[in-house]
C-alpha cells in the first residue's frame, strides 16, 4: 500500500499530531492527497512549550486547522508513580481524548505518525494505540524514519532534520514519582542547553541529580561550556554529571 492509496480509502481522518518529524510529514502527505484531515495536538505537562509552537508553525505553513486539547495526565496515579508501564497509560489517555473529540466532530478514523522503524515489541504506546484501533499509515506503507526525513526535506518541511524528542517524563528514572516541579526543572535545563546551540541531547534525572547526555559530535562543546552548564543546571539539581556513553 502507498500513502496515496491509504488516503483514497480513508478520505476523512483525524491525526494525533505532535509537531515532530513523522506526524508532520503525514499531515503534509494527507493534504497533498486531498484528504480531509484534522490534526489534534494534546497539551500536557509532559510536552515542552516549543513542541506546541512547532505544531502551530507547521499547521500554519500547510494552511490547515489545528485542534489543541488540554489534558492533565498528572491526575492519573498510574502515570505519576512512573512505573514500567507509564507510557502505556499516558498514551492511552492521550489518544482516547483525541478519539472521543474527533468522533464528536465527525472524524471516525484516527491515525498517528508511527513509522516502519519503530519497534512494536519495545513500545508500550503502540499497545495503547492498537487497543484504540489507531491506524499508522507510515508503518503500514513501510516508510522508515530515514524515508520520512528525506521525503520531508524534499517537501521543504522545516521539521525534516528535527531531532527526535521524547516527552519530558522519559528523562525521569523509572519509579521516581513525576511532579510538575520536576518536569519544570528538566524543561528549564533543556531550554538552557538549546540556548547554547545544542540540539540532540537529554537532561536525565533520578529526581535529585542531573545526568547530561549529548551526541559524540557535541561532546567537545560540552567541555568548553562546562562551567556555565554546571552553574545553570545546579540551580535545579544537587549535582550535574556528563554521561560518557554518547547518544546515538
What does this structure look like?
- It is a single chain.
- By secondary structure, the chain is an alpha/beta fold.
- It has two domains: about 5-160, HUPs (Rossmann fold, 3-Layer(aba) Sandwich); about 180-240, Alpha-Beta Plaits (2-Layer Sandwich).
- Helix content is about 45%, strand content about 15%.
- The protein is built from eleven helices and seven strands.
- The strands form two sheets. It has a four-stranded parallel beta sheet with strand order 3-2-1-4, with helices on both faces. The protein has a three-stranded mixed beta sheet with strand order 5-6-7.
- Helix 5 runs parallel beside helix 6 (about 125-130).
- The protein is globular, with a radius of gyration of 19 Å.
- The mean pLDDT is about 95.
Outline of this structure?
This protein is of the alpha/beta class and 248 residues long. Helices cover 45% and strands 13% of the residues.
